[in-house]
Amino acid sequence: MSAALEALESAPQGSSLAENAYLLLRDRLIMLDIKPGDPINDGQIAAELGIGRTPVREAIKRLESDHLVVSYPRRGTFATGVDITQLAEVSEIRELLEPLASRKAARMASPAMRSELRAVAGAIRDLEGQDNSSQELMRYDIQVHRLIYKASANAHLEDVLIRYDNLATRIWCYMLERMPSVSGHISEHAELLTAIADGDEDRASELALHHVVSFEETIRKVL
């Protein structure tokens, strides 16, 4: 993985144990490393992470609000199923907010952020011709979206979009084996990131909308 993309994977410095546990579990659930319906054992997770159960339980509560886990009295906590019927609802929200985030990022990004966006765009272009698995490419997709949301300089918009992108990515990963290729979906990001770095608000918004619409169309073709 390139340094530009690798930098996106690290948790913020000074994060609490609960935050670290949340971020780790969240991404495992999104990428289906934890399968839909799998039990979530707080004791086992705490032992794996080398922390107490309390921060793990705090993380699980947050994951419930993200609709990634569900708890049942006397039965325990489980990874939620992947509901393909939610695709239209999730896409409807993303079609409105993703272009907004990209437009704001093009307007608001700092010089340092614009340099980072260009570096990541270059890293995405360098992926062409490499033998990356679909899972690896989807991790890049997550990282790029989160960088755009951060660049929008609107914490509330960032929080909402992360939640819906997580749900969309989970649907995509669930359908991954039916997909002919995801490389084209990932390579689209290079042009989008460049438009944002250039401050081209209209182009960034247009490309973001196209990306979300093509995502839904691709899923529907293999249903």
Automatic annotation (TrEMBL):
Entry keyword annotation includes Manganese: no
Organism superkingdom: Bacteria
Keywords from the named record: DNA-binding, Transcription, Transcription regulation
Domain HTH gntR-type: 15-82
Key word Transcription present: yes
PROSITE patterns tied to this protein: HTH_GNTR
Pfam families: FCD (PF07729), GntR (PF00392)
Protein name: GntR family transcriptional regulator
Originating species: Paenarthrobacter aromaticivorans
